[in-house]
Write a structure and sequence with these properties.
With 257 residues, this protein is mostly helical. The protein is built from 11 helices and no strands. The chain has helices at residues 3-30, 41-50, 52-86, 88-102, 110-117, 121-144, 149-157, 162-199, 205-214, 218-246, 248-253. Helix 2 (41-50) crosses helix 10 (218-246) and helix 3 packs across helix 9. It is globular, with a radius of gyration of 22 Å. InterPro entries: MetI-like, MetI-like_sf. Residues 59-239 form the ABC transmembrane type-1 domain. This is ABC transporter permease. It is a multi-pass membrane protein.
Length: 257
């Protein structure tokens, strides 16, 4: 994508967001909606400027939980996907079990984790890990299995070792799918960390929103939502930037998208 196309895309998004915020502000003013029901964008900006230290302090805690949970999901998900692809036993036994376990809402395990691990940060990290783990391992397995049989047979006919086949054929082919799983995983890690803070925490953005809800502080709740949206967008785009740096050939193959 050329610089001109990037600028046009950024300008289009910015204008759309500005128009929606202006419409929101106008509707609140025209219909006289009180702030305790629906604050205007200006009310939210003013409150964020007023309580920026509180928001940053709680954001830092949530960010640590998100990154720790995501790192665990990557650290366990990708190696486990490799084992599933190369081991028929794990592919036939453990993978179906994992898919079945995914049907269980991970948040329902929170009371058990609290009983076993307490109310500390470890519980929130594990919940973020459990929620982000599944899309990463599934995308990794799909990507590692996407290599054409003819290509693998050609590599074997050239006396390539299993490691060489993995590094030069399977892994490059799988990287787009793996990074797709990372993008989904990092956003789900945000969800997991915040939901865990709803249930068992005395700090973090989830706790701050819960406290604001108990105090009927709608403006602060919107401030937390804005912070979570910003954090999620930053992490998502960071993963996208790493993807573009790691596999530039894939971007070029798609016409520089």
């Amino acid at each position: 994508m050329s610089n001109t196309a990037k600028f046009k895309s950024l300008l289009s998004v910015s204008l759309t967001v500005f128009a929606l915020l202006a419409l929101w502000q106008l509707c609140c003013m025209v219909f006289g909606i009180p702030e305790y029901l629906l604050p205007t964008p200006l009310n939210i900006v003013e409150r964020m400027a007023q309580d920026w230290q509180v928001l940053l302090r709680h954001s830092g805690i949530t960010i640590v939980e998100i990154l720790a949970g995501f790192a665990l999901s990557v650290g366990f998900g990708v190696p486990f996907a490799i084992i599933i692809v190369y081991s028929k036993y794990f592919s036939r036994s453990f993978f179906p079990i994992m898919i079945g376990l995914q049907c269980v809402p991970m948040i329902s395990l929170t009371p058990l984790l609290i009983t076993w691990l307490g109310f500390g940060m470890v519980t929130k990290v594990i919940i973020a890990f459990l929620i982000a783990f599944f899309p990463i391992i599934v995308n990794s397995v799909v990507g590692l299995r996407s290599s054409e049989k003819e290509m693998l047979m050609l590599a074997q006919s050239m006396k390539a070792s299993t490691f060489q086949v993995f590094m030069h054929f399977r892994l490059p082919k799988a990287l787009p799918s793996i990074f797709g799983g990372f993008k989904v995983g990092i956003t789900l890690a945000v969800v997991g960390a915040v939901v865990a803070e709803f249930v068992s925490s005395d700090r973090g953005l989830g706790y701050l929103q819960l406290a604001a809800s108990a105090n009927l502080d709608i403006t602060m709740q919107f401030c937390v939502v804005v912070m979570l949206a910003v954090i999620g967008l930053i992490f998502y785009n960071l993963v996208g930037w790493i993807e573009r740096a790691a596999i530039p050939w894939y971007r070029a193959a798609r016409g520089g998208e």
